[in-house]
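Because showing beats explaining, we think one record worth quoting, sequence and backbone structure tokens together, and here it is:
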Amino acid sequence: MDFRITIIAALVLVALAAGFWWRARTGRAKLVRSGEIVDLGKLKATRAGQPVTSFGKKATLLQFSTEVCSICVQTAKYFKELESKNPDLTHIEVDLTDRMDLAAHFNVMQTPTTLVLDRTGKVQARIGGAPKLNVIQQELAKLEIK
């Protein structure tokens, strides 16, 4: 009986540690040094039924979502609000539900995943999970978006 309690306690501690680790990583920006420039043609993103053909004047928030992601809806709403307040910012949302090729290419392990792009489409930062508001503001400030 004593052995089983020890095993259960160890499993609970491991689960708690994993949860704290995951929470600490989610929503934080990670600097991307790959220098990758996103190809809008390969994304096949649309807006109001028309293909997206350009990046924002100063920055673009590229959000990867899925149909079953409830957090993605709130994230997109926030990004659209930011976009409406700033003409130099563009928000592009791509549904990965049927685009496993993009999920693999961009190494998307959770949704939403947001890539912060500069005006040329170069990936500057990556945010996995629901982005923290101050994190988005800091990343946009780096690209001179206020």
Remarks:
- The mean pLDDT is 86.
- The CA atoms of residues 17 and 58 lie 39 Å apart.
